[in-house]
Design goal:
disordered C terminus, mainly beta, metal-binding, repeat, single chain, 350 residues, unfolded protein binding, carbohydrate binding, Jelly Rolls, elongated, disordered N terminus, Calreticulin/calnexin_P_dom_sf
């Protein structure tokens, strides 16, 4: 299926721009390929475009992979580039930043404070951003952003084929109440012994310990040759610290045989938690949208947008993008945050 749709290029007034995209079925996945991009974005402009998927796509009982690459060819002071998955009917001619979506993913930059990688999921009509602080890339190179969502509600975020973050929807989004909560009514038992070490009851203070002086005369000191007892008095050697003096006597410490560890408030089942086995399931996806905006003259190139149900297809997409960039002479090293190749590990997992 190849669809021609209208994108919107806004510079104070709306100007329609034709955009051609295509989608193809590959195995069990759907790959969406952007084959023409309107590249130049000027001051305070927004570029919006959208592709309709036929038939609609569901990730129920399947791993969802959302992947695309983005390149800002100049330094961006304030801007972003997001991919969105939309459900239900969407008027493509009125598609905009406020159009409801089921999923949003992509970098957002503004000054030195905001360098965020958005991962937003919609659940029962409400949007939930990821709670973790994910950082996006800020250079002028092309970067692949990948989001993987599995049927067990676990997820992974990859940047340039390296895992940036992972976890589960149950803990990293405030969608459902937490399954476990701390028991606020619990108190430490009176017989709870949290002393790791105790005094040795069998240790006895040595006889004469308290009579050991703190200082003693320096045995190496000698009376000066010019010392005159009639004028200077009786010579006495100066005092030095007594190496035998150990301070006030204390019993030795031994391991406490009754030590139970540090007491911690126990976790209990949350009475307000009600599990949803379809927590990971998005509403059937009918549209893929791209939103790019910035407040400074710049060139933006979203080279490819790919969504696949199988991670192998996403892997092939990244390898193809790497090969094409090398052919074009883009050989600058990319910044890597994690030395391990996550996708190889995930293939082993499959």
């Amino acid at each position: 299926m190849v669809g021609k749709i209208d994108g919107f290029y806004q510079t104070g007034k709306e100007v329609k721009v034709k955009l051609v995209l295509s989608s193809t079925q590959q195995g069990n996945g759907l790959v969406i390929q952007m084959i023409k991009v309107f590249k130049h974005i000027t001051m305070q402009s927004i570029l919006l475009y959208q592709l309709k998927i036929a038939p609609e796509f569901s990730n129920k009982d399947r791993t969802l992979v959302v992947q695309y690459s983005v390149k800002f060819e100049q330094n961006i002071e304030c801007g972003g580039g997001y991919i969105k998955l939309h459900s239900g009917y969407v008027n493509q001619k009125k598609f905009g930043g406020d159009t409801p979506y089921s999923f949003m993913f992509g970098p957002d930059m503004c000054g030195t404070q905001t360098k965020k990688l958005h991962v937003i999921l919609s659940y029962q009509g409400q949007n939930y951003p990821i709670k973790k602080d994910l950082q996006c890339e800020t250079d002028k190179l092309t970067h692949f952003y990948t989001f993987i969502l599995r049927p067990d509600a676990s997820y992974s975020v990859l940047v340039d084929n390296r895992e940036r973050e992972s976890g589960t929807m149950y803990t990293d989004w405030d969608i459902l109440p937490p399954p476990k909560i701390k028991d606020t009514k619990a108190k430490k038992p009176a017989d709870w012994d949290d002393r790791e070490y105790i005094e040795d009851p069998n240790d006895v203070k040595p006889e004469g310990y308290d009579s050991i002086p703190r200082e003693i005369p320096d045995p190496k000191a000698k009376e000066p040759d010019d010392w005159d007892e009639e004028d200077d008095g009786i010579w006495r050697p100066p005092k030095i610290p007594n190496p035998a003096y150990k301070g006030p006597w204390k019993r030795k410490k031994i391991k406490n045989p009754n030590y139970k560890g540090k007491w911690k408030t126990p976790w209990i089942d949350n009475p307000e938690f009600e599990d949803d086995p379809d927590l990971y399931v998005l509403k059937p996806i009918k549209y893929v949208g791209i939103e790019v905006w910035q407040k400074k003259d710049a060139l933006e190139e979203a080279e490819k947008v790919r969504r696949a149900r199988e991670e192998e297809e996403a892997q092939r997409a990244r390898e193809e993008g790497e090969r094409r960039r090398k052919e074009r002479g883009h050989r600058k090293p990319r910044k890597r945050h994690d030395p391990r190749d996550y996708m190889d590990d995930y293939h082993d997992e499959l």
